[in-house]
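Work Package 4 report. The design task specified in the project plan requires that, given a folded chain encoded as structure tokens, an amino acid be chosen for each position. We show below one input record used in the internal validation round.
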């Protein structure tokens, strides 16, 4: 059984999907492609309460890593990339090419970028910490403003130096309706 629960966050509405034993997906609902719950999914907050709680701590700046049971669905290569993303420390960034090198794929930056873009657990599996080889912020499913905001929240130097306090202001909670707030 898959459960879903929608929550408000400082970066917009998020849809959480899980089984009750593991988190499967975090989806940015404010983006161009909001996810509709499957017909066989059940709306329920309780099975996703731990994920909601830890995300709330992250956005308040009191959590730097997540301790959740995860069950992302992907190819063996995607799973390897997502494991590598999970090893990027809070507040640090690495390039797509560096992730490829860590996986033994010297010329695999584009393949890493595709796997990164398919990450079903953004924020939890920190794909926002991956940047271009020249330090630029590139592609992010939630949009570059959200990527900047997440990196600014974490104090990543590449963002803080370029954008000063803009992202901290963008992270002030905003209420978007009836979804439960973090």
């Amino acid at each position: 059984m898959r459960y879903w629960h929608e929550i408000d966050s400082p970066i917009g509405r998020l849809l959480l999907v899980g089984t009750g034993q593991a988190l499967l997906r975090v989806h940015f609902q404010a983006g161009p492609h909001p996810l509709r719950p499957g017909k066989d999914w059940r709306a329920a907050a309780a099975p996703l309460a731990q994920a909601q709680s830890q995300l709330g701590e992250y956005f308040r700046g009191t959590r730097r890593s997540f301790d959740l049971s995860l069950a992302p669905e992907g190819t063996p290569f995607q799973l390897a990339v997502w494991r590598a993303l999970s090893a990027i420390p809070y507040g640090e960034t690495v390039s797509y090419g560096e992730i490829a090198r860590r996986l033994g794929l010297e010329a695999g930056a584009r393949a890493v970028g595709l796997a990164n873009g398919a990450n079903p657990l953004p924020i939890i599996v920190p794909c926002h910490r991956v940047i271009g080889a020249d330090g630029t912020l590139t592609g992010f499913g939630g949009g570059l403003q959200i990527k900047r905001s997440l990196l600014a929240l974490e104090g990543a130097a590449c963002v803080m130096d370029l954008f000063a306090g803009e992202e901290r202001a963008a992270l002030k909670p905003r209420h978007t309706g009836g979804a439960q707030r973090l």
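Residues 49-60 form the longest helix (12 residues). Validation will be extended to a larger panel in the next phase.
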